[in-house]
Amino acid sequence: xxxxxxxxxxxxxxxxxxxxxxxxxxxxxxxxxxxxxxxxxxxxxxxxxxxxxxxxxxxxxxxxxxxxxxxxxxxxxxxxxxxxxxxxxxxxxxxxxxxxxxxxxxxxxxxxxxxxxxxxxxxxxxxxxxxxxxxxxxxxxxxxxxxxxxxxxxxxxxxxxxxxxxxxxxxxxxxxxxxxxxxxxxxxxxxxxxxxxxxxxxxxxxxxxxxxxxxxxxxxxxxxxxxxxxxxxxxxxxxxxxxxxxxxxxxxxxxxxxxxxxxxxxxxxxxxxxxxxxxxxxxxxxxxxxxxxxxxxxxxxxxxxxxxxxxxxxxxxxxxxxxxxxxxxxxxxxxxxxxxxxxxxxxxxxxxxxxxxxxxxxxxxxxxxxxxxxxxxxxxxxxxxxxxxxxxxxxxxxxxxxxxxxxxxxxxxxxxxxxxxxxxxxxxxxxxxxxxxxxxxxxxxxxxxxxxxxxxxxxxxxxxxxxxxxxxxxxxxxxxxxxxxxxxxxxxxxxxxxxxxxxxxxxxxxxxxxxxxxxxxxxxxxxxxxxxxxxxxxxxxxxxxxxxxxxxxxxxxxxxxxxxxxxx
Length: 568
Ligand SMILES: Cc1cc2nc3c(=O)[nH]c(=O)nc-3n(C[C@H](O)[C@H](O)[C@H](O)COP(=O)(O)OP(=O)(O)OC[C@H]3O[C@@H](n4cnc5c(N)ncnc54)[C@H](O)[C@@H]3O)c2cc1C
What we know:
By secondary structure, the protein is of the alpha/beta class. It has helices spanning 18-29, 69-79, 86-106, 138-152, 217-224, 252-255, 282-294, 313-319, 321-331, 386-405, 413-432, 439-453, 460-477, 491-515, 533-536, and strands at 6-8, 11-14, 34-38, 54-55, 120-121, 131-132, 156-159, 161-169, 172-180, 185-190, 193-196, 229-230, 235-242, 259-261, 304-307, 340-349, 352-354, 366-368, 373-374, 457-458, 524-525, 538-545, 548-555.
């Protein structure tokens, strides 16, 4: 067998989005030899698409003068339907002002108020305007800032490398194995620490706002290595995605004063959240739109209008230039003159790899940060603007922890070599096998199944049917073959490898959804419409065992804020 290259670094960060770059930067500043592996160029990571903003209780606008981290924490916990861990939320909200100012000092070009301070806009579920933004291109600005910083720190990058396996033995991490997409060969990485920062699993659904690369690879790698996945049933559906293409129309559009109207021209949110109206949390607004459609008040039975026309050309062009451009390019609608057709679409993965507030997992040396992790600050429903915040707060904390605690260990090349051989066999089977199924035959079916059976509204019978379907698709994967056997830049091979993660993750989402027999946040069951705190104010955790997935419940960290009915 061909000798594979094995690279050595103290720290390997898998993922070049905001959380990965922030963790890498901090560990690099602490003197560690850090390398970042990413399946796309870091600046194409999904973080680049974030639009609306990042939350911090800076209190810059007059209506929010008295804003405090405690208010931010309360809004987050209430928004989470009380499932978020209150100690983790406290950490995030306390550190928010500092990380935002730090990003500003690193060079992020935030939008400004007249007095020069960072501008803040209202967002769903927030009591006051708390969301700092760079027009509607916040992620683009933040990601470029952090990328520049990591380049300046001379960190190593392995761009367009796809991580296929972790090398774990006796509950310790020793590195990982990746496919060099350009050269078409497997390489090993021996390291003391691996940080998973691989983003969400949104693309197990169709009608998603997510980049096509959000396939849950990191969650899959951790699950395979024996780390539990937490609260995976909580999938956020964003209420306003462009009808047809499901490109995001940021909540910032409603934050700037946009209305939602049904076919009768009514601002229907008055019937669902009379106080918060369009700025109720996403789970509530998404369900309201589906209800309007089911009761015959949506356009063509499917979409409602996001009306910005009363905001005027100047405000739209200054605050929402990206939204204007996307609406024009993808729906042929000029939001200055006409309303934008919108419908709910999959948007965010609240669940993920079970971690502590410093990013550590139960495997020594394995960390996870960002959307692939569940720390848990979003609980059953994430508030807009809190995810960008999570990436930088917990990315920085993981980097700090690595800086303080990393202990050099003997590199276990034998383990890396065994992992390389195992993955080589798998790739050979995919490239040269006899199977007559290709990835796309299964992928679309999986996505449609997840959308239909584990969507905004759920119920037992259809979820059981959905789980059966997912299991069938998993079985069929054994006969999947990549049509084109070339090794260099074979994107079909990458899609096929991603499909494996997606199928495993979909099964976990399905099991969690079926077992949670209540409605909480984004998980709404028509057959159990009540929240049932006594039985289910717990995290679900699912671990891979030799007998298959094993689910158990774990405590939520409560304390500062009393658990209450959620009203808006
Ligand atoms: C359209 C849109 C707009 C949003 N707007 C906002 C907003 O305004 N405010 C907010 O708070 N949140 C927003 N969010 C959510 C937020 O953008 C994300 O949660 C966040 O950016 C995720 O960052 P991350 O670092 O965890 O992962 P990502 O940015 O998704 O990066 C993942 C990285 O992992 C790498 N990777 C994955 N698998 C592998 C593998 N197998 N091998 C090697 N590399 C791999 C990828 O190449 C990539 O570099 C938005 C989400 C969407 C979909």
